[in-house]
Specification:
By secondary structure, the protein is of the alpha/beta class. About 25% of the residues lie in helices and about 20% in strands. α1 packs parallel to α6 and α1 (about 5-25) packs parallel to α19. It starts with 6 loop residues before the first helix and ends with a helix. It holds the Pfam family LCAT.
Length: about 625
Amino acid sequence: MANKPFLIFSILLAFLAVAGGDSGQGSELDYSKLSGIIIPGFASTQLRAWSILDCPYSPLDFNPLDLVWLDTTKLLSAVNCWLKCMLLDPYNQTDHPDCKSRPDSGLSGITELDPGYITGPLSSVWKEWIKWCIEFGIEANAIIAVPYDWRLSPSMLEERDLYFHKLKLTFETAFKLRGGPSLVFGHSLGNNVFRYFLEWLKLEIAPKHYIQWLDQHIHAYFAVAAPLLGATETIEATLSGFTFGLPVSEGTARLMFNSFASSLWMMPFSKYCRASNKYWKHFSGGKQVGTNTYHCDEEEFKSNFSGWPTKIINIEIPSTREIPEANLSGMECGLPTQLSFSAREIADGSFFKAIEDYDPDSKRLLYQLEKSYLGDPVLNPLTPWDRPPIKNVFCIYGSNSKTKVGYYFAPSGKPYPDNWIITDVVYEYEGSLVTRSGNLVEGNPGSISGDETVPYNSLSWCKNWLGPKVNITRAPQSEHDGSDVQIDLNVEHHYGDDIVPNMTRFPRVKYITYYEDSESLPGKRTAVWELDKANHRNIVRSSVLMRELWLEMWRDIHPDAKSEFVTKAKRGPLRDEDCYWDYGKARCAWPEYCEYRYVFGDVHLGQSCRLRYTSADLLLHYL
């Protein structure tokens, strides 16, 4: 299937541009004036050279505006030169003396990471989406990308690039240009960036105008695959290296990743620990001064895992120095000592302090952790996120995939950066914890698992944004007639507890489960969508996600809509592409929606299956 990320914005805004003036009459908001603002994830923005760098022993040099991230040709032929343009100083986050890189701007910066005949399709991020925008006649000013240097910590994004000032101006410019608020779509790390922006904004706008500004400039926020409590794969990238599919060694990948202060932005942290901000005194009348203080609830110390399924790090270190008794899991003279660390002990720096004598990166990472995160005057990002104060919030993520939740490390006997090896991995899957070697592990596994990259407990933290009464619906992801739709209304929900619906599953059916609340916060709606088997990196290309977002916003704009959320009673084809040929019945599938209609150029029967009615007519069934 062709990559079509963020197709929803193109289809939705195209429709709005045509129909918004008519169908939107009588509604509170003229949706034909909406803008779409996209905040991409980690490593999803092009970086370009801003230097002249001569690469010895290679015919390829770096000149200003040359592509750095991602140019696989130069990576393969001149890896040392390429690294100079990618690496940052681990302490002050400045560029290498010989080369600097900066993020590209606009849609071109997020379209395709490595353009080219061979590599282009593999690195295509939003290229197909732009084609759809053009095909549907979207105005160039309706879709706005806000790329950023994903190597930097949040405070450095503002200090070096004034990123959050520019983002605020982007919202205000979109409002002036289009006349209405924006839809914000964040993917992965992009959600962390947006969270920091909302906190930074509190210091830029008078408190009594803060909510007014949000209501005026942001209509809905779609948080897709957000690592709300961090991601365990960050530990792997920090200690042993994660290549992201690049043709580099794990040691080189580790060296590069640990030079980025953003590497700590996705570290796992406890759901029981929070930070008090030194600027809160301006809002609450408090007298606190100085840096942030980090404090944990009693639950943190009653549990062993900080709200995670298991201990995240289990590491062997030489027993050559005195080890704190709390971390000691058995020591014999002359044998390595195995230490275990929870999410809290990672986020507060205890882990890095424990291995400081055995790993040269630990001091650098500890410095950045204390400076850019624990000591950040705006926000300590390694703390749980409460529901953002936006009218409509949709939290969307994949589930039920085998996901890493813990690691076993041991010294490799090799020099840095290859000084650690992974001896085993703990996965969550089907309500159990199992190691790579097949052994079951004790812990607190969730009812389901994550999206292959981010564990379920981190993705599903946004269920705490729902109120005490939640409506739950489970339906097949594919087109259906409603026979397998299950509904449970007014389910009790307690903050901090997971919501596990008592619903059946057929083994071969992929479901989407909706958790919806429109009553606990007057004038606000909150929804959580779980998509079975949706991969973290590819969820934005999911046609199911695009369809559901389209239908939800269609219901939102229509004056005749009777429910707070779109009905899930059935799902039929909405586009010609959804129609296909049923070889068993020798006709087009879904005959009430689709018909056989040949058009010159069709090369197979499925292409000739097309909608009987217009999409606008079909959409009326979903009000």
